[in-house]
Amino acid sequence: MRIMILNGPNLNLLGTRKPEVYGTQTYDDLVQFLNTVAGSLNMTLTLRQTQYEGDLITSLHEAHERAFDAVLLNAGAYTHYGYALHDAIEAISVPVVEVHLSDLSKRTEPWRQHSVLEPVCVARFMGEGFHSYDAALRFCKTHYDPLKNS
Ligand code: DQA
Prior knowledge:
The chain is α/β, with parallel strands linked by helices. It has helices at residues 19-22, 27-40, 53-65, 83-91, 130-144, and strands at residues 2-7, 44-49, 70-74, 96-100, 123-126. The chain has a single domain (2-144), classed as Rossmann fold. It is 37% helix and 17% strand. Helix 2 packs parallel to helix 5 and helix 3 runs parallel beside helix 4 (83-91). The chain starts with a strand and ends in a 6-residue tail after the last helix. The structure holds 1,3,4-trihydroxy-5-OXO-cyclohexanecarboxylic acid. 1,3,4-trihydroxy-5-OXO-cyclohexanecarboxylic acid is lined by residues 10, 74, 76-77, 79, 100-102, 112.
């Protein structure tokens, strides 16, 4: 099955950015982790990281046009106010799973506790570091694998 994983702004700084919240592993470590998990689940990954909301939207449209089976989206801080991203997710038929390294409900800043994307995503996995992505991939395998569900 074909999965697109989109990581938003500042996620390239993993390892040095707030390690007490996001951990000490780097973005390259995350990429390696995702490729290993995807390989074990027999998934083909398209993996992107960008600082720009418009690029995330263009990738969501592409996932729709190219009929990906699912998208994992960690939109970074756009999660909290990205209404154009909300509309893009709502407009496409590909299921989008929201992913976060940290547990938004336990973050100290009140604005960080709310996701404007949650209502249009099919599920949300957070608070488990890299394993949030692992759980999201396994969720996709269970629910959206075209071979499994044919
Ligand atoms: C994050 C949480 C967001 O609030 C933050 O802006 C991020 C990362 C997470 O993975 O925990 O960049 O999405």
